[in-house]
Specification:
Helix 5 runs antiparallel to helix 6 and helix 8 runs antiparallel to helix 9. A hairpin with a 5-residue loop joins strand 2 and strand 3. A 3-stranded antiparallel beta sheet has the order 1-3-2. It is built from 11 helices and 3 strands. It has 246 residues and is mainly α.
Length: 246
């Protein structure tokens, strides 16, 4: 005869509370194999193994109703159910990753703007709620599908925190110095820093950088190229003309 557990001993050995075991008994998930003459529940080793399966499936994210169904059905249905749960987990991971990027974007925007700018925050949240490529569709005359994907991949988390902060810094430095003479050494250095950071971000992909610059000069409403705006772009153009590069 195998080992027999009272509800108290089962609770102590598994870490499952007596209240939870009571509930599992009530819904027919884990029922004791026998009872004492006094009505106390007794659990067999098979009951303990069933409880361990329940705990494992619960850890995997299955609901109690799903667990009941899985325990009743065959091994093949187990595999199917686990595959379905894996898909749910992957989708949730993607959702949480996008949420993380949206929150980081909002945090960076507050740091960059020096205040809570609700229109920008709302636009950032919208950006991460849509299909990534949709944000750049209005620039499809300048950018190929592959180039759009590469740009959005950068926005979606392929840049390190250090790279993002450096990018915000070089754009912020230009925004804070829009009054500079485009022929001045400082103006030229600001644009060089901006170009160096752009090269670093996109791996010195000259074709992509050229096409993106064309798109930036036709900057439309939206957040896809934030924090670049028309004032910053005009400054870069003026400095480029002053250097005879435009």
């Amino acid at each position: 005869m195998g080992k027999i557990y009272t509800i108290g001993k089962l609770s102590k050995s598994t870490g499952v509370t007596v209240r939870t075991l009571d509930y599992y008994d009530e819904i027919g998930l884990i029922k004791p194999s026998s009872k004492t003459s006094g009505g106390h529940r007794l659990y067999s080793e098979d009951d303990v193994m069933r409880l361990e399966r329940v705990l494992a499936l619960k850890y995997m994210g299955f609901s109690l109703e799903q667990i009941k169904d899985i325990l009743i059905n065959t091994t093949s249905n187990w595999q199917e159910s686990i595959q379905q749960q894996l898909e749910l987990v992957k989708r949730e991971q993607e959702r949480l990753k996008m949420l993380e990027q949206a929150l980081l974007g909002v945090s960076y925007s507050i740091e960059f703007e020096g205040e809570i700018n609700w229109p920008i925050i709302f636009s950032i949240i919208q950006l991460y709620q849509q299909d990534p490529e949709d944000a750049l569709q209005q620039y499809k005359e300048y950018l190929s599908e592959d180039e759009m994907k590469k740009i959005m991949d950068m926005n979606a988390g392929n840049m390190s925190e250090e790279d993002i902060k450096e990018w915000l810094k070089v754009v912020g430095d230009i925004r804070n110095n829009l009054h500079l003479d485009p022929y001045s050494e400082k103006a030229e250095q600001l644009v060089i820093s901006w170009a160096d950071q752009a090269d670093k971000m996109f791996g010195q992909d000259e074709e992509l950088l050229g096409n993106m610059w064309e798109a930036l000069q036709d900057l439309k409403e939206g957040i896809a190229f934030y924090p670049m705006d028309k004032d910053v772009i005009d400054f870069i153009k003026r400095v480029a003309i002053a250097k005879g590069e435009e």
